[in-house]
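tool=predict chain=A
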Amino acid sequence: MTKKLWQKTNNNTLEKVVESYTAGEDLVYDQKLVAWDVVGSIAHAKMLLKIGILTDNEYKQLHNALKEIYKKYQSGKFALKVGDEDVHTRVENEVTTKFPSAGAKLHTARSRNDQVLTDMRLYAKDEIVKTALLTYELTQEFVGFAKKYEFAPMPGYTHMQQAMLSSVGLWATQFAESLLDDLAVIEVSYKLNDQSPLGAGAAYGVSLPIDREYSAMLLGFSKVQTNSLYTQNSRGKIESLTAQALVQTMLTLGRFATDLLLFTTAEFDFFSLPDSLTTGSSIMPQKKNVDIMELVRARSKIIQHYAYAISDLITAIPSGYNRDTQEIKPLLMKSFDIVQSSLAIATLVVKNMKPKTDNMKKAITKDLYAAHHSYQFVKKGMAFREAYKKVGSNLVGIPDYIPEEVLKETNHLGAAGNLDIKSLDKQLLSTQEIWLKKKADFERIVSKLLK
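tool=predict ok
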């Protein structure tokens, strides 16, 4: 059996049922942290070299051994197994087996508490960048779709009833703007994760002259998370805020899913999707189900549940490390997986959905022009409330307006006739540049450590 980092003697063994309960499932999620544990360990070793704990030769041995683990992991040949306890134990034992003397020094001035925090921050930064770029791609698709069908008229709804004239462009760009807001929240979560916890130890620091700023710089963190006790207590808090940022994205996708599910029913029949994106029924030959969007809608609720669960796990636990926080890891990792796959599905849907413009036009009734007709009297000097009553008492008298002309006449900023798509294009370009730079910077940091 693998020796645990906390074992003092070979006689100090755990009951198998205890080991399975405390570490069994956790190893599945630790597998995703192998690369980050290696990268964090290289930076830590380099800092130990700087302060004189390691010799040049010892550092080279550790660096080579850690790089070898990274290569094995990348090729699928480094899998955690029952008995390893966690990723940190397996990595350190692997290094120590190869270089016993140098390996015995690797954990100097480090606890598994700040080690897993570092792993999770690096993991989160990487996943946030992936999520942001997928969000950008979806936003770009919505904007492109809106440009193509900017003045295609469709009914607008309030209270689930027809309300006023809308357009496909207005409907599509609302999701683009919502996603840009979601990206702003995601950027805040990135900033919170961009703090180095390495060196906080078990929450109370260490009595060695470590250089936390140097470690942070090597790992590409923008700053050190200063207070060692708060650094530990922030585990769960920052993951909770990150999960809440992901919730915002899924709220946008959930609404899009619901709209599209309604608008593809036979009763609406406003949009169509190719057969390659729909499923059928085992009993009803005619069925063409848009069930991928039903799953997006369902998973938008699951993401909310995960975010609440993370918050609940840290509610009222005392200061310092508590193993409750281990349960946060799968919740956050599953959240990233769900959000990223949902973004990819939504992008595929937007690329392939087609508006049935004739059906939308047929669904437009005179009542949709009631407010517009009222404003025609306002333009002639009538008070709005009087115009409102005049039109409301004679709805059959509303003339046959041409919907495209009404849309173009509704041309204040943000209305169907003035969506300011050029501004959205500028925001998209700026957003893309921000996240591509973060991606490139992060990849450069990792590459440098692995040289």
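The radius of gyration is 28 Å. The chain has a mean pLDDT of 95.
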